[in-house]
Specification:
By secondary structure, the chain is α/β, with parallel strands linked by helices. The protein folds into two domains: 6-121, Vaccinia Virus protein VP39 (Rossmann fold, 3-Layer(aba) Sandwich); 130-195, no CATH class. The chain has helices at 16-23, 37-49, 84-91, 130-138, 144-152, 161-171; strands at 6-10, 29-33, 56-59, 73-76, 97-101, 112-114, 117-121. Helix 2 links the parallel strand 2 and strand 3. The protein starts with 5 loop residues before the first strand and ends in a 27-residue tail after the last helix. It binds S-adenosylmethionine.
């Protein structure tokens, strides 16, 4: 992040990331969006106490209803929901960046990654090829089962496996060309997400 950035924290809690964005990265402006009224109030009070109200704005609203047009970089640490790709793909201005935690959006190729953070740039670069997406997540070829096992090793990441699998089934083509048997899910002849293990 640089001085010309406008940073949005989507689900900002008590606003700590906005404080860091402004004081340590020197961004032009930061906006924290928080649904929970008590947390939003605490965040706003904290920002005021720190004398940062001219550069940090806290909004008590659902980030799915927020105007994000001036964000150059946004962070969303909550789990992906089904509508996120189309929502953020259209709400964020072209050329802006969205950073997520633990995984990029399912089927979106990240432009940068520093685990557990993944950065995606708008317009999102999408793929229907599960193997290509997994390679962009793990930086190596792996099966869907291996990806899920890898996610299981992170104790901080208590993801909903059923939701993730369903998203993968919805986003990736069922039959894929060039997906080697060697690293296909056990028993599968292709990287067929309809045959996700477990
Ligand atoms: C784990 S906290 C993260 C706080 C902060 N981003 C950080 O990393 O320190 C996630 C916050 O997101 C908020 N949240 C979840 N869904 C939201 C939504 N749709 N709109 C606004 N806030 C939301 C929750 O209320 C919670 O305070």
């Amino acid at each position: 992040m640089t001085k010309s950035d406008v940073f949005y924290d989507l689900g900002c809690g008590r606003g700590q990331l906005c404080v860091v964005a402004v004081t340590e990265f020197g961004v032009k402006r930061a906006v924290g969006i928080e649904l929970h009224r008590g947390r939003a109030e605490k965040a706003a009070a904290n920002i005021e106490k720190l004398g940062l109200s001219d550069r940090v704005e806290i909004r008590n609203e659902d980030f799915m209803d927020s105007d994000l047009h001036d964000a150059t970089i946004a962070y969303c640490g909550t789990y992906e929901s089904e509508e996120d790709v189309s929502h953020f793909g259209s709400e964020l201005a072209p050329g802006s960046r969205l950073v997520t935690l633990f995984l990029p959006f399912v089927g979106v190729i990240p432009t940068a990654a520093d685990y557990p953070f993944y950065m995606m740039e708008t317009p999102f670069k999408k793929t229907k090829d599960v193997s290509r997406w997994i390679s962009s997540v793990l930086f190596r070829k792996a099966t869907v089962g291996e990806l899920l096992r890898e996610l299981d090793t992170d104790r901080e990441y208590r993801y909903d496996k059923r939701t993730l699998k369903q998203m993968m089934r919805n986003r990736f083509a069922n039959r894929q060309v060039g997906f080697s048997r060697k690293w296909a899910p056990k028993g599968a002849t292709t990287a067929d997400p309809s045959r996700l293990p477990g």
